[in-house]
Amino acid sequence: MLFRSWWSGTLYYGTHNITGSAGYGLFGQGCAGSLGTSKLTFNQPVLGSSLTVGLNNLPQSIAIMLTGFSNSSSVYGPLPFDMNVLGAPNCLARVSPDATTLLIGAGNTATFNLPLPNNPSLSGLRLYNQGFVLDPGFNALGASLSDAAAMILGF
C-alpha cells in the first residue's frame, strides 16, 4: 500500500542580504573528551553588542577559543583537518585559527566574550568558532574539540 503525505503551508525565511539580521549556528560536530563532547551555547552576533559563547564539558575548566575567517582552509591546509595525526583520533579541526583566546572558567564551563563594534561596514562579515578543550591524559594530544559554529555579523 502506498501512502502519500501532502503539506500545504508557507515557508518564511530571511537572509542577511535581505534583512541585515545577525546569525549564529552550528555546522560541525565536535569530538568527545573525558566528559563527552563540549557544546557551544551562544547569543546572536549583533553589531553594537557583545557576542557571548559558552563552552561546557571542560574537564579542566580551560579551553582555547579558535576564531577564524574560514571553515574551508587554514595556514595548516584544507579544513576540516584530521587531528588524528596529532594524537586526537576522531577529532576534526573545522575552523581556521586566525585568532585564539585562552578561556579559564569554573565548574567545567568557560565563557568567550567578543565585543562587536557598532560599525555598519562589518555587517555581513562571516566568522567561525570552535573550542580546543584541554583534557590531559585523555588522548596523546591531551585535548578534544567542541562542535563548530558559523556566524554572520548583523543588526
Descriptive keywords:
155 residues, mainly beta, five-stranded antiparallel beta sheet, three-stranded antiparallel beta sheet, globular
Please give a structural write-up.
With 155 residues, the chain is mainly beta. 3% of the residues lie in helices and 39% in strands. It has one helix and twelve strands. The protein has one helix spanning 16-19; strands spanning 23-28, 40-42, 50-55, 62-68, 73-74, 77-78, 81-82, 92-93, 99-104, 110-115, 126-134, 143-152. The strands form four sheets. A five-stranded antiparallel sheet has the order 1-12-11-4-9, with no helix packed on it. Strands 2-3-10 form a three-stranded antiparallel sheet, with no helix packed on it. A two-stranded antiparallel sheet has the order 5-6. β5 (73-74) and β6 form a beta hairpin. It starts with 15 loop residues before the first helix and ends with a strand.
Tell me the number of strands: 12
Strand content: 35-45%
Largest sheet: 5 strands, antiparallel
Q: Percent range for helical residues?
A: under 10%
Principal-axis shape: globular
Spans of 5+ residues with little confidence (pLDDT < 50)?
none
Distance between the termini: 51 Å
Order of helices and strands: HEEEEEEEEEEEE
Q: Mean of residue pLDDT?
A: 94
Radius of gyration: 18 Å
Supply the helix-strand structural class.
mainly beta
| Tally of helical runs | 1
Strand order of the largest sheet: 1-12-11-4-9
